[in-house]
Q: What sequence folds into this?
């Protein structure tokens, strides 16, 4: 009899309807709640279920108004890293957790998703204050976090089904398979960025947990308060205390020590290309040299479960494109969250004659100049602040360089009152001629869009691929041949046709790139969990005195 293997029908979490006054009133209430509960509070580490407030702390300023301290965060030291790993390594809970089936662990992800849903407005308000997200962007991220956890729970159950149904067993023989976590004991780490502090943290953390690992989670310094509340939500859902540790602190010390520790076997990371390269070198050194210093029973190689490192993303505008639709997508993709997305459009390539190019640039310039810039607590503002002083100065320098080159430069405006309070920069449009320039190749992570002209579609594709990254790309065209060529020839993990290139949706557009953008894992895809596991097969002789006893 053939066994049917299926994944349950998946429905994405619906977004809030911001046309209702009640929604915005709830957000205002949540903003007051965050101010009353987190401002002035020291957020602790969590190791083995115990909260630890350290002597060394760092503060998190509201990027829209640096006079506001959103909260204080305990800073872990190397001793805390050692203790967290020791807890996971010696815990009975960890051994029991690893021995459970994928399906049994899946229920904890669903409970965590329910917990995030219950705290929806709190998380929206917290991200508005801690990282400067707009309410719309923050709500979309809450939905994505819920989706990732629920979808990975479904995928875990699917893999359980697949293991029991994918192998043939002849009479007198029973063949079974199962997916197992990496290492004995299986210890994983998740080091995640500030720009999607809830979703990008929830996804890898949930994937590591549901595949059987004890996980140590280190968020970016800029988003550690959101990270703390996410970790608490996992633990409140019933995740055993020894299975999840929360370590806030500097990446250069805490993150580096976690990556290098010989007991850590699965590594999930999202961040800069430079750190990704350092992690890959560390994994290579361990697997080819340091592993031999361990007892034979502990020589499990380290595995890069997920490495995502940004992009230099592009939209191509063909000469027959619908300009009205394209303009909306360009602005959303380039300037949403001030361009601080790994999927953000930072290069625009326009094909066709100069007249078409000039007409599009004129329309785009008007849109950039009219784009409102201000604090996310005020619903009318589209472009918010940069994350911190370091980011502000780096992007401001790129903008100053563009102006000094006397190219076509168009900028928006920022109210001087906001400039004094926070890290606000206006959106900028820069006409470029050199694809190999530093500005054309480096990930800027700010509201700066470089525009290029290509004489034809062939040149546009060559220019699009002229980067070491391969994350997202988009094409606006009504030419079926050009659309197909773009799909076939553009190097990118996600390609969007006649739509914006940001906002990948779980189970609909699994997200991740290759080349220097990532190691091929696709967040929000059914196969994402596979990179966190090894596969084991068991073959049993079921004959007893010559009689099969299945």
A:
């Amino acid at each position: 009899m053939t066994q049917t293997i299926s994944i349950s029908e998946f429905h994405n979490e619906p977004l809030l309807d911001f046309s209702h006054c009640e929604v915005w009133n709830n957000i205002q209430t949540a903003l007051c709640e965050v101010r009353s509960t987190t401002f002035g509070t020291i957020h602790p580490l969590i190791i083995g279920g115990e909260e630890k407030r350290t002597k060394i702390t760092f503060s998190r300023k509201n990027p829209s108004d640096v006079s506001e301290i959103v909260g204080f965060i305990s800073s872990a030291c190397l001793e805390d890293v050692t203790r967290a790993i020791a807890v996971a390594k010696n815990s009975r809970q960890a051994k029991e957790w690893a021995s459970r089936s994928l399906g049994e662990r899946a229920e904890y992800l669903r409970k965590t998703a329910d917990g995030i849903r219950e705290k929806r407005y709190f998380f929206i308000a917290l991200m508005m204050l801690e990282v400067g997200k707009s309410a719309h962007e923050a709500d979309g991220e809450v939905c994505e976090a819920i989706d990732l956890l629920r979808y990975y729970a479904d995928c875990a159950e699917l893999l359980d089904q697949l293991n029991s149904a994918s192998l043939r067993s002849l009479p007198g023989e029973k063949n079974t398979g199962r997916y197992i976590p990496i290492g004995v004991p299986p210890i994983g780490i998740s080091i995640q960025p500030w720009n999607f502090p809830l979703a990008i943290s929830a996804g890898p953390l949930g994937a590591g947990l549901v595949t059987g690992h004890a996980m140590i989670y280190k968020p970016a310094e800029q988003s550690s308060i959101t990270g703390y509340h996410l970790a608490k939500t996992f633990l409140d859902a019933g995740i055993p205390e020894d299975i999840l540790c929360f370590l806030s602190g500097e990446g250069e010390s805490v993150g580096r020590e976690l990556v290098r520790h010989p007991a850590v076997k699965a590594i999930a990371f999202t961040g800069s290309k430079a750190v990704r390269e350092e992690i890959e070198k560390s994994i290579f050194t361990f697997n080819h040299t340091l592993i031999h210093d361990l007892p034979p029973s502990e020589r499990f190689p380290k595995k890069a479960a997920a490495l995502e490192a940004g992009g230099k993303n592009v939209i191509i505008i063909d000469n027959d494109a619908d300009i009205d639709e394209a303009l909306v997508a360009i602005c959303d993709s380039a300037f949403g969250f001030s361009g601080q997305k790994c999927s953000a459009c930072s290069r625009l390539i326009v094909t066709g004659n100069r007249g078409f190019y000039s007409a599009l640039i004129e329309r785009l310039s008007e849109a950039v100049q009219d784009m409102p810039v201000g604090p996310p607590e005020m619903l009318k503002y589209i472009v918010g602040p940069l994350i911190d002083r370091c980011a502000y100065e780096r992007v401001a320098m790129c903008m100053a360089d563009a102006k000094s080159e006397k190219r076509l430069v168009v900028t928006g405006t920022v109210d001087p009152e906001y400039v004094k309070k926070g890290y606000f920069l206006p959106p900028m449009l820069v006409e470029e001629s050199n694809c190999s320039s530093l500005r054309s190749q480096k990930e800027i992570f700010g509201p700066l869009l470089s525009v290029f002209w290509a004489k034809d579609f062939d040149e546009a594709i060559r220019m699009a691929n002229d980067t070491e990254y391969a994350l997202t790309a988009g094409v606006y065209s009504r030419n079926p041949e050009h659309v197909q060529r773009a799909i076939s020839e553009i190097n990118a993990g996600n390609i969007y046709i006649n739509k914006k290139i940001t906002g990948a949706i779980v189970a609909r557009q699994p997200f991740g790139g290759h080349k220097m953008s990532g190691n091929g894992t696709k967040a929000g895809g059914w196969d994402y969990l596979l990179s966190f596991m090894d596969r084991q097969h068991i073959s049993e002789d079921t004959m007893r005195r010559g009689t099969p006893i299945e």
Notes: The mean pLDDT is 95.
